[in-house]
## 1
Amino acid sequence: MQSNSVVSLIQSHRSIRQFTDDQLSKEQIEQIIESGRWAPTSHHVQAYSIIVVQDEKKKRKLATLCGNQAYVETCPVFFVICADFYRLKQASEIHQQAFEAGEQEQVLVGAVDAALVAQNMLLAARSFELGGVMIGGIRNDQEAVAQLLNLPSHTFPVMGLCVGYPDQNPEQKPRLPQQAVVFAEEYNKEDLVEQINEYDDVMKKYYYERTNGKRLDTWSKQMATFFSTPKRPQVGEFLTKQGFTKG
Ligand SMILES: Cc1cc2nc3c(=O)[nH]c(=O)nc-3n(C[C@H](O)[C@H](O)[C@H](O)COP(=O)(O)O)c2cc1C
């Protein structure tokens, strides 16, 4: 198959959660941010902001808020990528026009913009031999994160991103087979159960080998457990408070 350095970088992805004490240079941080800024955005709204956190105390507090995820503190730089319609509200005020950004569509727009920015940033970081992991735990307590980072109305944290020099060399985590996620011309449910079973075998082997036989999990069991309870019900309430009020 045809390849090049970009494709190889993308396809060699692994999340990194252990970092050396080495710091990033100012230029590396600048390039990572700049790469985020060049992500495409819906309707050119650029509905995101990046908060760069290097202060040790703040990282510690955020690590706790993210559900005691130690790497949020131990990574040299933690980025918080937010959906941000605050400056769009300002634009409306400048032109004395109604500001209609409360609908769920805008929550999607902001989340997608933020995600594209974050992935560009992670890839840029990896191009410098850095590693990182995205942190959805930033949505565990968005209210407290908003207070800590002084986030205004019409913004919400979407994800965090830990970046640093890798101090681990994990294997790549196997993905669902291509047939289970890519369809020609129309959706195909036919072989799904079979594909899930096949993937379960792959993941069982992966976990078994990675944990010296301690973990005997399968992907479907993991997902079934994950989706057996509601996730972050407080998110809806926080979004309403931030101005995303309409269904
Ligand atoms: C939006 C998003 C949020 C995530 N949140 C967390 C998180 O809070 N903590 C964590 O350890 N990993 C988090 N991850 C990493 C995933 O667990 C990881 O990408 C997945 O298990 C696949 O592993 P890989 O990235 O090593 O291929 C997140 C990934 C994404 C894309």
Note: Residues 90 and 99 are 9 Å apart (CA to CA).
## 2
Amino acid sequence: MNIKEKALQILENTAKKIPAVNRLLEKEYDKLLAEIEKSAKPYKDSVSYPIIPEKGIDRAEILKTMTDFQQKEENKWKDGFVSGAVYHGDHEHIEFLNKVVALNSQSNPLHSDVWPSAGKYEAEIVSMTANMMNGSAVTGKDEVCGAVSSGGTESIMLAMKAYRDWARDKKGIKKPEMIVPITAHAAFDKSSQYFGIKMRHVAVDENYQAKVKEVKRAVNKNTIVIVGSAPTFPHGIIDPLEEMSKIARKRKIGFHVDACLGGFVLPWAEKLGYDVPVFDFRLPGVTSMSADTHKYGYAVKGTSVVLYRNLELRHYQFYTTSDWPGGLYFSPTFAGSRPGSLSAACWATMLSVGEKGYLEATKKIMKTADYIKKAIADIPELFILGNPLWVISFGSNELDIYKVMDAMSKRHWSINGLHKPSALHIAITLRHAQKGVAERFIKDLKKSVAEVKVQPKTKGGMAPIYGLAASIPFRGAVGDLLKRYLDILYKV
Ligand SMILES: Cc1ncc(COP(=O)(O)O)c(C=O)c1O
């Protein structure tokens, strides 16, 4: 926390003690949240079960209700109106995975004696991913290892926990610190909060890449790990991984490459001849990586891979207990029981897509992204942040970009709002590579820009929320607002 942030926190704590300030904030929150609640709860009035029904409801009726929901929601992503979210989405692919999930619906990797297939699937998912990341190719040994987790956040958190425990055990570090560019995923901040690792944020330069000099300066005797992204979630930019990993290697600390977003794109983009810097275990300083099978790996939601350069590091991830009256207990990741069906679906995806399928998919995504990047660059009111490959962020010096987001929402688009600086982004997927989708995106974007230009003062939508978040200097207050949003999601 810098001096300004500290001063604001003191001010905020003082302001919170003044009832009038609290009342004012509450009023503002209530107004905003009432608006949000309407759009977050579309089924509230038609179907609601706040308590277990006395008598079981007919299965056919339940299926009908759920099919109605599914169809309404499918309409949103199927035609490519959503940034990221569904990365493949072809009908035959989904049908195949649904069969695999159904076949394995009872499987639980915790009971490896009952479901040895689940263990086999996970071992091979890790091996295939490690190989794709040039694991054994560079070490000459099969030491690059890992685990299947529930998603990118868990993969990241597992690695950060492993570094904390490794550094405590091997180096006696009791006050661990991590060096993380501000553009790295929020899961690193979550790890810092959950595991008591002090966060040392470093800034990014005009290309939205981590500032190497700041990374160098931030290292001290308590540093356990440096983090780089391939690419970052907000701007789709690859950090200067080679230079950053050299610093980590020299100082004998961990270097984690977060390839949750790019792990299943970059290896193929490189093969296709795109300008991709070395981002994986070929860099000797890289000690761990995260790569999401449930994004561009095209598996169903709920799997990701965390990789380590050696078995020693992975041991600090594992949990074991030999004293529990419940018996000898051990589990590789945070959960105990886990859905084996998801690992089965992930394995089946990787086998059925194959190298050729990943290459073809990446080719389509890159081609679509190239078209969209060029077309956005041609819109005079907009500019692209940095030099991204396929996750494209754009802002405006003339218009309220959040109003452009709202104008796009009216045209059914669901694109991500970013801030610090204010911008939007679209992560290109196979959905956008469908015929006519990229053209429709650009047409709608141009219309939205033109609309905001003539009517900059329209009300409603997300613009006031981002506006409020930007205008409240107190980050705690914004955090409170987000917690209240989560409360709404759990309201029946
Ligand atoms: C770069 C990056 N890292 C980590 C994550 C977290 O992944 P998940 O949402 O699967 O937890 C994301 C998600 O978009 C990401 O883009």
Note: The two ends are 38 Å apart (CA to CA).
